[in-house]
Specification:
The protein is α+β, with helices and mostly antiparallel strands and 324 residues long. The protein has a 5-stranded mixed sheet. A two-stranded antiparallel sheet has the order 6-7. Helix 12 runs antiparallel to helix 13. 45% of the residues lie in helices and 10% in strands. It is built from 15 helices and 7 strands. It is globular. Bound molecules: iron/sulfur cluster (2 copies) and FE2/S2 (inorganic) cluster (FES).
C-alpha cells in the first residue's frame, strides 16, 4: 500500500509517497510505522515522539484528515476503519503552525495555557504543615481533566479554531482552566475563569469534534460548558454569549420548546445590532428557513411538558447540591 506523507521543509510544502507491503504495515502502531519508514526508506522524515506509551502527548498526527495519537493507534485498526484502503495520507496536526514535516509549533498553545494560570493558587488556610487536603470527591470531580496529556488532537479538529483562531484558544486550554477553577484547593476560581472568558469561552461553536478525537476520553466541550455555568453563577453574565444561553432556555421552558430564531437574535444582540442583518433575515425567510410569525410563538412541541419537568428536576437537584 501507499503511505503518503505531507512534508514541509521550512519553505515549501510537498508530499512523499512510500510503498509498503501490507505485512510491513500490519502489526505496527502508527508511530512504529513512521519510525520504520524513517529507518528503511527516508532518514529525512521528521516527526516527534518520546514515551511511546500514550503519556507524553508528543506523537499526535492526522491520518486522512483526522487526528490520532500515533503510539496508541494500531495500523490494523486504521486499516479496518478506512476499509483496507490502497493508500493513507499522514499529515501534521491541523490548527498548528508546521515547523517541518509532522512537527508543529506548540509555543502559541503554551502561551494560551499560561493565560489561564493552570497551576493552583492555594486557599490561605493551607500551610506547609497542613498541606492542601482534598476529599476523594474533590479529587474525583477533576480527575478526568488531569488525564490530559497535551497531545493537541482536540485542537486539530476544532471547527472554531479552523474558522477564526483570533478570538479563541485550543479546547484543552479550557479543560485546564476548568480543572484549576474547580479544584477545591484553589483560592479563587476567578483567576482561571476570567482569562477563559476574555479569550473566547463563549465562542465555542458546539461541534463536539474535540470530544470525538480525544484519546483520553476528555470532553473539552463539557469543560467549556461547565466554565460557562460557573461564570453565570458568579454573575459574569454580560455579553452576547450569556444572553444567548438565557434566551435559549427561555424558549425551551417558557416558549413552545423550539428555538425561536427571531426572538433569540433580538434577545442576544438587541434590536440595533439586528438592523444590520435584515438582509440575512430576508434571505432566510425567502428560503423558508424563518417564519416571521414565530415572533408571536407557535404550537408547543410534542413532549414539551416532559421537557419542562426535566429542566425543573435539574434545577431542584442543583439546589439540593446533587449536581453542579
Ligand atoms: S466543541 Fe467547541 S472546543 Fe470543541 S471542537 Fe467544537 S468549537 Fe472547538
Ligand atoms: S484534551 Fe484530550 S485531545 Fe485535547 S490535548 Fe488533552 S488529551 Fe489531547
Ligand atoms: S510518544 Fe508519548 S504519547 Fe505517543
Amino acid at each position: 500500500m501507499k503511505i503518503i506523507i505531507e512534508r514541509f521543509d521550512g519553505k515549501k510544502k510537498y508530499e512523499s509517497t512510500y510503498e509498503l507491503r501490507i505485512d510491513e504495515v500490519k502489526g505496527q502502531t502508527l508511530l512504529s510505522l513512521l519510525q520504520y519508514i524513517k529507518r528503511t526508506q527516508d532518514i529525512t522524515l521528521n516527526f516527534t515522539a518520546a514515551c511511546r506509551m500514550a503519556i507524553c502527548g508528543a506523537c499526535a498526527v492526522r491520518v486522512n484528515g483526522h487526528s490520532y495519537l500515533a503510539c496508541d493507534t494500531k495500523m490494523e485498526e486504521l486499516l479496518e476503519e478506512y476499509e483496507n484502503p490502497e493508500s493513507m495520507r499522514i499529515s501534521p496536526l491541523n490548527n498548528f503552525r508546521v515547523i517541518t514535516d509532522l512537527v508543529v509549533d506548540w509555543e502559541p498553545s503554551i502561551e494560551n495555557l499560561r493565560k489561564v494560570k493552570p497551576t493552583i493558587t492555594p486557599k490561605s488556610e493551607f500551610s506547609e504543615k497542613t498541606g492542601c487536603v482534598q476529599t476523594q470527591a474533590d479529587v474525583d470531580a477533576i480527575k478526568k481533566q488531569w488525564d490530559c496529556i497535551l497531545c493537541g488532537c482536540c485542537a486539530s479538529e476544532c471547527n472554531k479554531l479552523e474558522a477564526d483562531a483570533s478570538d479563541y484558544m485550543q479546547p484543552f486550554v479550557f479543560t485546564h482552566a476548568y480543572r484549576a477553577a474547580d479544584d477545591s484547593r484553589s483560592k479563587d476560581p476567578m483567576i482561571h475563569l476570567k482569562p477563559a472568558i476574555a479569550n473566547g469561552l463563549w465562542n465555542c461553536v458546539h461541534c463536539q469534534e474535540c470530544v470525538d478525537r480525544c484519546p483520553k476520553g476528555i470532553s473539552s466541550f463539557g469543560d467549556i460548558e461547565s466554565l460557562r455555568v460557573m461564570a453565570m453563577k458568579k454573575g459574569l453574565n454580560e455579553g452576547m454569549g450569556p444572553a444567548h444561553a438565557e434566551a435559549f432556555l427561555l424558549d425551551m421552558v417558557e416558549g413552545d420548546g423550539r428555538l425561536n430564531e427571531i426572538k433569540l437574535a433580538l434577545r442576544s444582540e438587541g434590536v440595533l445590532a439586528n438592523t444590520t442583518k435584515l438582509d440575512i433575515a430576508y434571505n432566510l425567510m425567502k428560503a423558508g428557513k424563518m417564519n416571521p410569525l414565530h415572533i408571536f410563538g407557535g404550537e408547543k412541541i410534542e413532549g414539551h411538558a416532559e421537557l419542562v419537568k426535566m429542566v425543573e428536576a435539574a434545577r431542584k437537584a442543583e439546589k439540593e447540591g446533587t449536581i453542579k
